[in-house]
Amino acid sequence: MRPQLAASLACALLWAIPATAQTRIDVDLAAQTHTIAPEIYGQFLEHVGTQPYGGIWVGPDSDIPNTDGIRDDVFGALKTLDIPVIRWPGGCYADLYHWRDGIGPHDKRPVRVNMVWGGTEETNAFGSHEFFNLAERLGAKTYLNLNLGTGTPAEAADWLEYLTAEAGDRAAERSANGRETPYKVDFLSIGNETWGCGGALTAGAYADLYSQYASFAKTAGDQPVRILSGAHDGNPEYTDTLLGHPYIAGLTEGVSLHVYTLPTGEWSEKGAATGFPEAEWASTIKRTLRMEDVIADQRAIIARHEDLPDGFGLYVDEWGMWVDQDEAKNPPALYQEGTIRDAVVAGLNLNIFHRNADLVKMTNIAQMVNVLQAMILTDGPDMVLTPTYHVFEMYKPFMGAEALPVSYTSPDYTLGDVTVPAISLSAARTADGQLIVALVNADAKASHDVDLTAFDAKEAEGHLLTAKTMDARNTFADPEAVHSVPMTVKAKGKKLVLDLPPRSIAVVVLK
Ligand code: AHR
């Protein structure tokens, strides 16, 4: 029997395992709250694989229905998510990107080679105007990653002037290229993963360079939020050294953090997207939950640097699932399937971000289309929404809501030597006073009851996303295989108990 079929049958049988224990919640509805920055729901658009070319940009002459070159189906799906901010053009690619390659008439733009992601052709058809116009149409803020690795402070300063100036030669050039009104740069990063692909710089060397770039990285009008490229989950001290630099406090409003979930934890063999054993489900959950500790470490480091400006934030500008590519299928760089496991990973991370809403000011899942834990996958004219897309859609009411401090007990989910809490949840109050709760059951096999009585409500109404196997996914042949369904649970007497099936995510409004 094929392993995947065996796994499916086993899971189908286990589907019926009943609720084992109950999660009890304690919530102080009068406690101080923190606003969940809408930007926690940010996206990341890097020039990798078929993300910009094919996934988003098809060009105005394409047979695929498009508006000014942006495919309409993908745009429509992204619009539904109310995307608050998009980071562009990388990632590692940002440190190879020269903005002048991506402006002006399309037939005059140089064709380059994407030397960091697979040596594919980079036509530069998707450049500054295409990105800023896309963000504007989506109603999303812009997060620009400047090129520190192979650029210069002058090139970076020129780009910002070109994009934002009201007058002068660069504004005239922008107008001649089709855009008279200045663009808005809301967030700015200088360099990316400077401890790695961004130049392999020590924290001290990067901090010196950052200070030089930041001194000249000015926009016309409002200044963007400036974000230092910080640590990953394995080198927290990098951030500490950066923040200890004598000039940094006056030149930055936040620091970034990159945390990926690799099922095995090994870069050389990360684990498969589908057909994986339950051990890799369990290790994925465990490795995802590390996010809480990684943020706690960064919180402690930031707190040590008392000279940082008020409101200094942590920007988790890359996170998500990263699995091995199926080389036999020769996929584009970083293309991977998205399953219900990814959806659970998304829910767990978003709950952690809500709980840390006082510090975490933005996050950017990696990435938006056709790359890593994508919202959307495309194949020629076809498009499919991943289970992660549905989580982002379900969690939308949390954008800008007030995070409520909630404590809760959870039954364990144990497999071999891995034991993790099965249930994760977060709660918030929306601007119009509604109480909303997001719940994840990360248990691969058992359903669990969650007692919501503490919220003093008569009914919980919302949506549930679940699937019958650990690697259930949407395919181009069956694009609706994993989708959310409406759910309503009514209180019995004073008790309001929600039964969460295994491998599920729910978002409910309490009434
Ligand atoms: O998201 C893919 C890559 O992961 C980014 O380019 C880089 O910053 C990180 O290593």
Please characterize this protein's 3D structure.
This protein has 511 residues and is an alpha/beta fold. The protein folds into two domains: 3-34 and 404-510, Golgi alpha-mannosidase II (Immunoglobulin-like), CATH 2.60.40; 36-400, TIM Barrel (Alpha-Beta Barrel), CATH 3.20.20.80. Helices cover 24% and strands 25% of the residues. The protein has ten helices and 27 strands. Strands 3-6-9-10-11-12-13-14 form an eight-stranded parallel β-barrel, surrounded by five helices. Strands 2-17-21-22-27-24-25 form a seven-stranded antiparallel beta sheet, with helices on one face. Helix 4 (153-164) runs parallel beside helix 6, helix 8 runs parallel beside helix 9 and helix 9 runs parallel beside helix 10. The chain binds alpha-L-arabinofuranose. Residues 46, 90-92, 192-193, 197, 318, 366-367, 372 line the site of alpha-L-arabinofuranose.
Can you give keywords for this protein?
alpha/beta; TIM Barrel; eight-stranded parallel β-barrel; seven-stranded antiparallel β-sheet; 10 helices; 24% helix; globular; binds alpha-L-arabinofuranose
